[in-house]
Amino acid sequence: QKEVEQNSGPLSVPEGAIASLNCTYSDRGSQSFFWYRQYSGKSPELIMFIYSNGDKEDGRFTAQLNKASQYVSLLIRDSQPSDSATYLCAVKDSNYQLIWGAGTKLIIKP
Amino acid sequence: DGGITQSPKYLFRKEGQNVTLSCEQNLNHDAMYWYRQDPGQGLRLIYYSQIVNDFQKGDIAEGYSVSREKKESFPLTVTSAQKNPTAFYLCASVADRTGNEQFFGPGTRLTVL
C-alpha cells in the first residue's frame, strides 16, 4: 500500500515567521512531488511541484526534496494570515497516479 | 475562460436514489479524475479516464459509475449501492497522464438525507 504521511496539525505560526510543513512517502519509485493548498470548503490549488533532490523556490515558497530519506517539505517565509489553509502533499507514483496525504492544517496568528 | 465546472455545488439525496454529478472541462485535457474527500482526510481516487471511451477504477470505485463519451465531460453517478456517499466530490483534469498539474473543479458537496 503506497502511503503519503503528513502531520494533521493544526500547526500554529506567528505572522511573519517561517512555516515548515513536512511529508513522507513510502514508494521509492515516486518521481514527482506536489504541494496543494486547500481553503475550507474549496478545491485544492497547486502551489509547487518538485522532482529533483534539493530546493526549489517560488516567491515566499520553497519546496525541499530528499529522495534518499523519502521526504518532501514546504517552507513558507513571511507567513501571512491568508496562508491559513490545509496543505496537501501529493506524490505521483510509477503509474502516474497521485497519492495524497491527509493534509496539514496551518494557522497563521496575526 | 478555460477551466473545469462542476454541478451542482450542493446535492441532497434520499437513501436508495442514484444521483449524477456533472464535470465539464474546456482545457482540452485528455485525462480526467474523480476524487472523494471526507473531513480530515486526503483525496481518494474513485475513477479516472485517460482517453475518450475508456476509464479505470480507482481505489474506491464500488458504488460509483462513470462514462467518458466526450473529451470535455466525465459525469459521475453515485448509485444506491454506495453505502456512505456523504462527502465532498472533486473532479480534476490534466493535459495527459504525464502532466504535472491537476486542475480541480469547485467541487460538489453531496449529503444523504
Describe the 3D structure:
The complex is a heterodimer of chains A (110) and B (113). With 110 residues, chain A is an all-beta fold. In chain A, 0% of the residues lie in helices and 55% in strands. Chain A has no helices and eleven strands. In chain A, strands 2, 4, 5, 9, 10 and 11 form a six-stranded mixed beta sheet that branches. In chain A, a hairpin with a 6-residue loop joins strand 4 (32-38) and strand 5 (45-50). Chain B has strands at residues 4-7, 10-13, 19-25, 31-37, 43-51, 54-57, 64-66, 76-78, 87-94, 103-104, 108-112. In chain B, strands 2, 4, 5, 6, 9, 10 and 11 form a seven-stranded mixed beta sheet that branches. In chain B, strands 1-3-8-7 form a four-stranded antiparallel beta sheet, with no helix packed on it. In chain B, strand 4 (31-37) and strand 5 (43-51) form a beta hairpin. The radius of gyration of chain B is 13 Å and the shape is globular. The model of chain B has no long low-confidence stretch (mean pLDDT 92). With 113 residues, chain B is an all-beta fold. Classes of the chains: A mainly beta (110), B mainly beta (113). The interface between A and B is medium-sized, with 19 and 19 residues.
